[in-house]
Amino acid sequence: MTGKPEDSLIAMRTMRMAKILGENVRKTRLKRGMTLEALATEVGLAYSYMGGIERGQKNPTLDVVERIASALDIEPVSLLSRPEE
Amino acid sequence: MTGKPEDSLIAMRTMRMAKILGENVRKTRLKRGMTLEALATEVGLAYSYMGGIERGQKNPTLDVVERIASALDIEPVSLLSRPEE
């Protein structure tokens, strides 16, 4: 990570929400007994992109977060809350 | 809103998170005594785009939500929680 120190700080923070989202999506999906493929299809996303979201490697928009929440029948903000919260 | 009924439903739901974000950003910004211009500059967004976010008319990515939260010194998920939560 070249660039200013605070870039990596921001990058690290940026990863935080994406990581939290990924863990929550995966946990909820498995709880619902859904495959990654089924969730991707229902949300209207490519399988690979959906996998990237679960690995915390994507930067989705609020609209995508809401569509995933709707497919998992959960409140969108719950997908963005740290598990212990 | 032409198209299938559920499109408007999804559109309505999609607006929800954007609306919640906008209200929370505006309320927190005013509490911090920041101008819209100052917030836009700190986050690195155009003034007009920042105004659109506050009006709930934009569909930002998680990265943008985190940068706004960082500028307002608040947890990102708090900006996405309904005010009474």
UniProtKB/TrEMBL annotation, chains A, B:
Signal peptide bounds: none
Coiled-coil intervals, chain numbering: none
A Pfam family the protein falls into: HTH_3
Entries under CDD domains matching the protein: HTH_XRE
Record carries keyword Transcription regulation: yes
PANTHER family named in the record: HTH-TYPE TRANSCRIPTIONAL REGULATOR, HTH-TYPE TRANSCRIPTIONAL REGULATOR SUTR
Protein's name according to its UniProt entry: Helix-turn-helix domain-containing protein
Species whose genome carries this gene: Shinella pollutisoli
